[in-house]
Amino acid sequence: MTTAAPHNRCLTPNAPRLETERLILRGPEPKDAEKVIAFYADKDRSWGFGGPISRADAWRWFALSVGHWSMRGYGFLTMELKETGEACGMTGIWDPDGWPEPEIGWLMFDGFEGKGLAMEGALRARQWAFEDLGFTTLTSNILPGNDRSVALAERMGAWFEKAYDNPHMGHDHMYRHPGPEAAT
Q1: Contact predicate 176/140, CB 8 Å
Q2: Which of 1, 69, 77, 152 has the smallest count of CB within 10 Å of its CB?
Q3: Domain residues of the chain, as ranges?
C-alpha cells in the first residue's frame, strides 16, 4: 500500500530558503505541481517554455525539475508570497544535459505578472548562485519573440550575446548576465 506524500513536504531537501522583501524562495513541494500544470496548459504563458503541453508532460517537467536538484545540487525554486503563502512563480538555476551553460530562468503563474515579482525573485536567485554556489557567470536562454523575458533580463543588466541551437527548444537567444562583481 502506498501513501500520498504530504502536500507541503519539500521535495528537494538541499534547496535553500531565500527571502526578499515580498517573497520566500523555497524548494518545490507536491502542492506546486498543479500550478506548474496550469502554467503549461496556458499557451500564452507557456510558449516560451515549449508549451502548451499535456497535463502528463507538465507533470513530467515538474518531476524533472525536482530531479534536477539531485543531479546538479541546484534548480528552480518556488516563489511564494510572504503575505499570503501563495505560490506565484518559479525562478532558479537550470542546467539540464545539453545546455550550453547554467542559466537563470523564471516563470510566473497566472495573475502574478506585472508586479515586479519575477525580477525580485530572479535577482535573489542570481545572488544565491553567485554568493552561495560560487558561479561566476550566468545566462538566460530566451526564445525569440519572448519580449517580456528579454525586458526582464535587460532590466537585470543582461545583454544579448548570441543566437544558438537549443537542444530542446531549437533557435534560441542567449543573454549574458553581469558577473558577481556587478550583479549585486
Answers
A1: no
A2: 1
A3: 18-176
